[in-house]
Amino acid sequence: MKWNLRLTAAERGIWKSAQMRRMLAEAGLEISAGKMSSWWAASPPVIRLEELDVLCAVLECVPDDLLIPEPEKVVARRPAQAEAVGEEHPGATVVTPRFGKPRSQPPL
């Protein structure tokens, strides 16, 4: 996912992270300067749904405005699939049976 807070805020006339932080505080979300800085400069590693709700309310936007899917990154993370899997079941794993020692029979 691509984090789009800075552009979304700029489209609404918010140019500085300090201004954004004050607006969030007025809406009831107190966050540290460090956390605001990481939200402003890069993608946050974690964001709580409550925080996302307040961001959307302050910016008058929807989560789709802040989070942009990047499907090409998902495809790049997938391991190469073996040709033996076949096209009929994409993503399936080939299972090879193992033959070990036969189990003993219970006494008669």
Walk me through what this model shows.
The structure is a single chain. This protein is mainly α. The protein has a domain of 67 residues. The protein is built from 6 helices and 2 strands; from the N terminus they run βαααααβα. Strands 1-2 form a two-stranded antiparallel ribbon. Helix 2 crosses helix 3. The longest helix has 11 residues. The protein is elongated and about 80 Å long. The protein starts with a strand and ends in a 31-residue tail after the last helix. InterPro entries: Cro/C1-type_HTH. Pfam families: HTH_26 (PF13443). This is HTH cro/C1-type domain-containing protein.
Q: Secondary structure elements and their pairing?
A:
Elements: E1 2-3, H1 5-10, H2 17-26, H3 33-41, H4 49-59, H5 63-66, E2 67-68, H6 71-77
Antiparallel strand pairs: 1-2
What number is the mean pLDDT?
85
Q: Rg, please?
A: 25 Å
Poorly predicted runs of 5 or more residues: none
Measured between the Cα atoms of the first and last residue, the distance is 64 Å
Largest sheet: 2 strands, antiparallel
Shape: elongated
Question: How do the strands line up in the largest sheet?
Answer: 1-2
Separate helix tally: 6
Number of strands: 2
Share of helical residues: 40-55%
Structural class: mainly alpha
The share of residues in extended strands comes to under 5%
H-E order? EHHHHHEH
